[in-house]
Description:
The protein is α/β, with parallel strands linked by helices and 215 residues long. 49% of the residues lie in helices and 10% in strands.
Amino acid sequence: MQSKINYQLETDRLLKALPTDRVPVLFLHACCAPCSSYVLEYLSQYFAITLFFYNPNIAPEEEYLHRKAELKRLVQTMPLSHPVTILDGDYAPERFYALAKGLEQEPERGARCQKCIGHRLEESFRAAAMQTPAPDFVCTTLTISPHKDAVWINTRGAELAQQSGIPWLYTDFKKKGGYQRSIALSREYDLYRQNFCGCVYSRLEAERREQQHNS
């Protein structure tokens, strides 16, 4: 796996090559409002964005609905350079539990996490292919998280792009202070900022970390 690629430089290269006679379209998978905040601020300068909320890993349903509502509030409130529309994906937690079976004890960034992200990327490309016209790129907000493997995400995204014919936008949104900016924007817009990725297993892992910190 090509671990030495500078994905921010690759993003810069792709953005410089965008068409100038129209506003290109980005199909952007979104995991939550805090992670989306900096990404929208950054990429809405270049794209009209379809923001795809597909996260069957999030539990319970109240948590899922809360995160989706916060994302919608952010898009309605935040000044954005080009239009951003939200596309709801299905909430199908049974899909997540099926792929996580046998991997319940895996840590974040482990095999369970990769399967979960891989599934969300697959569904993102499937939904993107149904758009008319087809988007210019697909990507995800997930590379902003320091707990996620940007190399694996970009590698899998590029593989799916080859299969679908829709280009992948290489990113590592943590770079250029992106993660810190997302924290600042979360405070500015008073966003609900959770301390776990979304699934029950990441919640338990976060609770264990907190107990160890307080002991």
